[in-house]
Amino acid sequence: MLEIPLSVVGFGGTATTHILSLVDIHIVGSPYQLGMVTVMGGLNGTVHTLVATGVDDRTPGGKGTLVLVSPTTVDMGALGSLPSIATLTLEYVPEPGTLLLLGTGLVALGRAARRR
Fold first, then answer.
1. What's the rounded Cα separation, in Å, for the pair 35 and 61?
2. φ and ψ of 98, to 5 deg
3. Per-residue model confidence (pLDDT) at position 30
4. In Å, how far from its chain's centre is CA 74?
5. What is the distance between the alpha carbons of residues 81 and 101, in angstroms, rounded to a whole number?
6. 3-state secondary structure (DSSP) of residue 88
7. What is the DSSP string of 50-85?
8. Rounded to an integer, what distance in angstroms lies between the CA atom of residue 39 and that of residue 48?
9. Which pLDDT value is given to residue 27?
10. Residues 24, 30, 36, 37: is their CA dihedral positive or negative?
């Protein structure tokens, strides 16, 4: 399994690695995005196509999951190139400090209303 660094794929760019120190592999990635991406490539005359979709199911309160996708190509020189898709999944959970601040504000509003 080959790990694609976030610093390369997250911002776009190229990373180089080796297989058994014999073959240079160049991983070319684009910035992450929301929506659908398609990557096509071939290896030994066989065409491969990959499709991935980003998803944003966060609630108006900010809780939920955001999945970003990036088209990526793994180029192995004379061996050919293969398509790949990198995904970045982010889970958003309201911070306890934010909830405490919200609760304190509601208590203060309740006390102010009681005094009137």
1. 22
2. -65, -45
3. 83
4. 18
5. 52
6. strand
7. EEEE-EE---TTS-EEEEEEEEEEEE-GGGBEEEEE
8. 8
9. 80
10. negative
Q: Tens digits of per-residue pLDDT, 34-84?
A: 889 898 888 888 888 999 999 888 888 778 888 888 888 888 888 888 888
Written as six digits, the tokens of 98 are 């934010």
Residue 42: both structure tokens together:
């071939």
Residue among 32, 24, 4 nearest 75 (CA): 24
Please choose, from the candidates 45, 51, 4, 60, the residue with its C-alpha nearest in 3D space to the C-alpha of residue 28: 4
Rounded CA separation 87/32 (Å): 8
- Global confidence as pTM: 0.62
Mean pLDDT of 87-95: 79
